[in-house]
């Protein structure tokens, strides 16, 4: 009862301060009515469906609260049974599942498997980290960058990529016009602040990061830096993933050199690639490379994604069939793999399309 009185008092104070708008209050009330109806009264509903009335509003309703008060609101929210032993049942942090998925479902990427697991595991187990975790994925399209980002989301959050603690930004889709960069700066800063206020361990994914305007990345640089807080909000438990094609050619050259010299692909180490990726990222055209994110050395790990070979494409094809409940024979898998394009032309060694197009491509081989 005391917590409810506190909540009502906070709502009254915030209403006087004009922190809430009537439609936001209505959305919050609708959400909690649905939550109580679905979970306490066990009504006939789907509490996690993609319905605006079933989700905590994503606007500015928390931006007027200091984190102290949002903590009190979170405690009240948990008292309704919406939280777990970890403190927030939206967050699962399943490191065992992350390790398994990276080993079983990600093919031909021993470096990404190792670096991503160690980085995420170390960050999760160190609640006193002095900055957010920032990873930069590099490689050809189709080598698994988006796939790994989804694996991370699926194992750190109950609702995976659809979690209200996960936000995906696609550079050419969300920020298409250079002339509007000042508008985008405000929108992006506000979105990140609101997300962290509602979910301190937030995962931000920036796809096609090389197409981001440098001013746009510099606008959010403080959120990835070594600060206790920015305007009273701590971002130290946030995770930032940048996905980029920058460095793809350099990665492929190293892999090809290893193949020509008769060395095993699995012998390629981070020492063979990390310095190349840093150099490529600093010299490449585009906003990502020109931003203070690079000059400020705020990226914790550059993660290389190697070009996929024929054998890896077959494994991806097998997974695509298995996802449809089918068990293909070796001949069928060979047919799918042979239908892909490979480079260099002389050796036909690396798949030019990766695994991205395989789920659609196998439609041609179904009876």
From TrEMBL:
This is Torsin-1A C-terminal domain-containing protein. Gene3D superfamilies: P-loop containing nucleotide triphosphate hydrolases (3.40.50.300). GO terms for cellular component: endoplasmic reticulum lumen; nuclear envelope. Residues 1-17 form the signal peptide. Residues 308-365 form the Torsin-1A C-terminal domain. It comes from the Eukaryota. Keywords: Signal. Belongs to the ClpA/ClpB family. Torsin subfamily.
């Amino acid at each position: 009862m005391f917590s409810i009185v506190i909540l009502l008092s906070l709502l009254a104070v915030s209403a006087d301060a004009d922190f809430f708008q009537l439609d936001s209050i209505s959305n919050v009330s609708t959400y909690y009515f649905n939550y109580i109806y679905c979970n306490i009264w066990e009504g006939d509903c789907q509490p996690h469906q993609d319905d605006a009335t079933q989700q905590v509003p994503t606007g500015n309703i928390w931006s007027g609260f200091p984190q102290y008060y949002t903590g009190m609101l979170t405690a009240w929210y948990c008292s309704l049974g919406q939280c777990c032993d970890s403190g927030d049942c939206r967050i699962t942090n399943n490191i065992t599942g992350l390790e398994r998925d990276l080993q079983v479902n990600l093919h031909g990427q021993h470096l990404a498997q190792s670096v991503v697991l160690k980085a995420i595991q170390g960050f999760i187990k160190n609640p006193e980290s002095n900055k957010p975790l920032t990873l930069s994925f590099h490689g050809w399209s189709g080598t698994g960058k988006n796939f790994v980002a989804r694996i991370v989301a699926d194992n750190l959050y109950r609702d995976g990529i659809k979690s209200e603690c996960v936000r995906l930004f696609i550079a050419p889709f969300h920020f298409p016009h250079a002339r509007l960069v000042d508008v985008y700066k405000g929108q992006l800063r506000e979105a990140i602040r609101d997300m962290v206020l509602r979910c301190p361990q937030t995962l931000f994914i920036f796809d096609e990061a090389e197409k981001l305007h440098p001013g746009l990345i510099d606008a959010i640089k403080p959120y990835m830096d070594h600060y206790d807080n920015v305007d009273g909000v701590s971002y130290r438990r946030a995770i930032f993933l940048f996905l980029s094609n920058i460095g793809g050619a350099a990665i492929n050259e190293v892999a090809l050199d290893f193949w020509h010299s008769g060395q095993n692909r699995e012998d390629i180490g981070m020492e063979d690639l990390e310095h190349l990726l840093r150099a490529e990222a600093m010299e490449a055209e585009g906003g990502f490379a020109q931003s203070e994110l690079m000059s400020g050395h705020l990226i914790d790990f550059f993660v290389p994604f190697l070009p996929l070979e024929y054998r890896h494409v077959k494994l991806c094809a097998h997974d695509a069939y298995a996802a449809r409940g089918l068990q293909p024979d070796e001949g069928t898998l060979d047919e799918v793999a042979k239908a892909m394009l490979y480079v260099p032309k002389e050796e036909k060694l690396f798949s030019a399309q990766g695994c991205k197009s395989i789920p659609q491509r196998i439609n041609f081989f179904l009876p």
